[in-house]
Amino acid sequence: MPTDAIHHDEREAFARTFLLHGPEAPTILPGWDAADLLEHLLLREGAPHLRAGSRLPGPLGARAQRALDALRAKSWQDRVARFQKGPGRLSPIGRIDALSGQGELLIHHEDLRRAQPGWEPRRLPAEAAADAWRAVGLMAPLAMRVRAEVTLVSPLGGRRLRSRHAVGSLRVHGDPLELLLWVSGRDEVAGVRIHGDRAALQALQEGRRGM
Q1: What is the distance, to the nearest Å, from the Cα of residue 33 to the centroid of all Cα atoms in its chain?
Q2: Are the CB atoms for 136 and 179 separated by under 8 Å?
Q3: 106: helix, coil or strand?
Q4: Residues 159-193: pLDDT tens digits?
Q5: Taking every pair of C-alpha atoms in the chain, what is the biggest distance, in angstroms?
């Protein structure tokens, strides 16, 4: 399946989740509901300047705030439909996401899914799982600051992250999507198994994960 088709399927599934639960649905992100999450995605993909611009004094700030107010005034269905279209072909965010395995989309979809009562892990199609595994490889070196040698193990293979001042070693096992969530710091919902020596486990507690 072409990569664009994988991304399209994930975006469509995410849009269905937004419509199913509505704008007031909780997410696992503190202080954010579904409307906040959707706004973050829309601004990230189409107007990243508006968030900061709305805080500026004078005409520039007022213009940015009006644009934000206009977005928020749209119906939930219209906002979700705008998200479904995705970033334009010339959007730098679209190109970055295509190269990175669409990690942002996968993670934020689970931020919404896994805050709902009775949620269950989903098993991605093989092509989408490969996409998530690619996102793990790109995100992990940037998102993890742990003084241990960490090996991420999925059914698709292993990735070793070395630390210059490692005090021990860890092995973290899970499906690609679960590892992606763990690398991004979402411990409360990531389905992983962690094995390591005492020093490495202590380093994990003291370290940092997430962007």
Answers
A1: 15
A2: yes
A3: helix
A4: 999 888 899 999 999 999 999 999 999 999 999 99
A5: 58
Contact of 41 with 114, CB cutoff 8 Å: no
* Torsion region of 101: left, alpha or beta (phi above 0 gives left; psi -120 to 50 gives alpha): left
Joined tokens for residue 98: 């295509």
pLDDT tens digits along 111-128 = 999 999 999 999 899 989
- Whether residue 141 contacts residue 161, with contact meaning beta carbons closer than 8 Å, is answered with yes
Question: Taking a C-beta distance cutoff of 8 angstroms, is the pair 109, 133 a contact?
Answer: no
Among 5-9, 39-43, 110-114, 197-201, where is mean pLDDT lowest? 5-9
Cα(19)–Cα(32) distance, rounded to whole angstroms? 17
pTM, two decimal places: 0.87
Tokens 């993670």 label which residue? 107
Rounded Cα distance, 48 and 40, in Å: 9
On the 0-12 / 13-18 / 19+ scale of CB atoms within 10 A, 53 is middle
Q: What is the pLDDT of residues 103-112, one digit of tens each?
A: 999 999 999 9
